[in-house]
């Protein structure tokens, strides 16, 4: 069956992480949300629904997929916020010839159409969201499903999804790889739950402790001496773990990331740097972020109270005691930067100084507490192109257009800044 993956209006709850990608391309566990959907529902034909400005970049990155068109064949359209499971797949496959909308409370989980009529469904031209009211005539079926609603949900669920993704990608532990070069003095605790990819180097005195969950290490990873990694943990292809790093459980370090110091219960999506000493906890770090030496995040209030977080222009009660930093693409912090509990920094911002900055920093901001200016888009883009080139990643014309668009759509957030 043709599979479609869409965003809904709650995709904005995941800003600033979703300025440069759809919500279904966020990592949680070992896989992204989209990868998990397609792991459980493999399909030859896939349609991706995205906001209009992301279309050219997504087409470039996914030449095999279709975009923003309702398939003219039997299809199953799935909400990209959905955490796919075996149990949910069974529910979605019941009565396969019957058209219906699968719901969980107020959330639309999926839409099954056996004989699609393109006139039955429209696409919001601005946000590329499926127009659900036009499907009101279809049968509604309540299903047991989990949909993430905010960016901190990804962090909170990261450990359990590393565990479940491990079961999926290793066939319940039957296809575990243990390749690479492991130094004789390295210690692997719970070896049967540790997977190591090809051309990976694990240095002297490294401890991999899978007592509390699996550890999956990709290919071409380098783990320097004396690093300690506690499961559940994922380290993606080409990543680097620095000397003496302390990587605690429920942490995902995506491809081409560099991690050092102390990292706990966090997600580094891909191509991010947290190389130096300093604490990062209960945080989500987007690609191309660089956290300067000594940067430390708070993830717990001194009162042990529930943390409020800035989301899309308003302050939201997270319901969580632990929330750290959410950093959008290309964010940079200076040495010894200190970030408050539940801080949110928009894309391409450069934050420095030793005074605690605001908990919310708009995209393309430059400066320190009390002295923020607007970071001009062309200057910011010039730096971004250079940074990406250091990892042999080209900032294509489509990527640069998205970069400029994000600057434009976040302009109102920077009211009061002085342009450079």
Task: Give an account of the 3D structure.
By secondary structure, the chain is of the alpha/beta class. It folds into two domains: 2-148, Spore Coat Polysaccharide Biosynthesis Protein SpsA, Chain A; 153-419, UDP N-Acetylglucosamine Acyltransferase, domain 1 (3 Solenoid), CATH 2.160.10. It has a nine-stranded parallel sheet with strand order 10-13-16-19-22-25-30-33-35. Strand 1 (2-6), helix 1 (33-40) and strand 2 (46-48) form a beta-alpha-beta unit.
Give the averaged pLDDT, no decimals.
Answer: 92
Strand content: 25-35%
User: Tell me, what's the shape?
Assistant: globular
How large is the count of helical segments? Answer: 7
CATH superfamily of the largest domain: Hexapeptide repeat proteins
Distance between the termini: 52 Å
Class derived from helix and strand content: alpha/beta
Q: Please count the beta strands (DSSP E, at least 2 residues each).
A: 38
Oligomer: single chain
Q: Can you name the CATH architecture of the largest domain?
A: 3 Solenoid
Helical content band: 10-25%
Radius of gyration, whole Å: 21 Å
**Uncertain residue ranges:** none
CATH class of the largest domain: Mainly Beta
In spatial order, strands of the major sheet run: 10-13-16-19-22-25-30-33-35
State the major sheet.
9 strands, parallel
What is CATH's topology name of the largest domain? UDP N-Acetylglucosamine Acyltransferase, domain 1
Q: How many structural domains can be distinguished in the coordinates? A: 2
């Amino acid at each position: 069956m043709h599979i479609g993956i869409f965003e809904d209006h709650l995709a904005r709850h995941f800003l600033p992480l979703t300025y440069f990608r759809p919500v279904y391309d966020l990592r949680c566990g070992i896989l992204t949300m989209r990868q998990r959907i397609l792991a459980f529902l493999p399909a030859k034909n896939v349609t991706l629904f995205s906001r209009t400005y992301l279309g050219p970049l997504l087409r470039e990155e996914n030449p095999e997929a279709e975009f923003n068109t309702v398939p003219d064949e039997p299809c199953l359209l799935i909400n990209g916020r959905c955490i796919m499971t075996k149990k949910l797949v069974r529910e979605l496959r019941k009565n396969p010839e019957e058209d219906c909308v699968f719901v969980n409370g107020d959330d639309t989980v999926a839409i099954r159409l056996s004989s699609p009529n393109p006139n039955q469904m429209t696409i919001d031209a601005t946000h590329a969201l499926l127009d659900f009211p036009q499907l009101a005539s279809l049968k509604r079926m309540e299903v047991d499903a989990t949909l993430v609603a905010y960016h901190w949900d990804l962090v909170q669920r990261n450990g359990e999804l590393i565990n479940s993704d491990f079961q999926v990608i290793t066939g319940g532990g039957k296809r575990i790889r243990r390749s690479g070069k492991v130094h004789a003095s390295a210690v692997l605790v719970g070896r049967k739950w540790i997977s190591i990819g090809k051309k990976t180097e694990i240095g002297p005195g490294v401890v991999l402790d899978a007592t509390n969950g699996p550890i999956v290490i990709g290919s071409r990873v380098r783990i320097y001496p004396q690093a300690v990694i506690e499961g559940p943990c994922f380290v993606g292809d080409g990543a680097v773990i620095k000397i003496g790093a302390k990587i605690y459980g429920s942490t995902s370090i995506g491809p081409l990331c560099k991690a050092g110091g102390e990292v706990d219960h966090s997600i580094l999506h891909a191509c991010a740097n947290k190389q130096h000493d300093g604490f990062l906890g209960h945080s989500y770090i987007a690609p191309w972020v660089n956290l300067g030496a000594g940067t430390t995040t708070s993830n717990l209030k001194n009162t042990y109270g529930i943390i409020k977080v800035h989301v899309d222009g308003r302050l939201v009660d997270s319901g969580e005691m632990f929330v750290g930093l959410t950093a959008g693409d290309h964010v940079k912090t200076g040495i010894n930067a200190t970030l408050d509990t539940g801080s949110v920094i928009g894309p391409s911002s450069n934050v420095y100084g030793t005074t605690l900055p605001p908990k919310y920093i708009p995209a393309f901001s430059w400066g320190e507490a009390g002295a923020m200016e607007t970071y001009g888009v062309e200057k910011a883009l010039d730096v971004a192109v250079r940074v990406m080139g250091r990892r042999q990643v080209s900032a294509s014309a489509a990527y640069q257009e998205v970069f400029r668009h994000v600057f434009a759509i976040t302009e109102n957030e920077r009211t009061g800044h002085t342009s450079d």
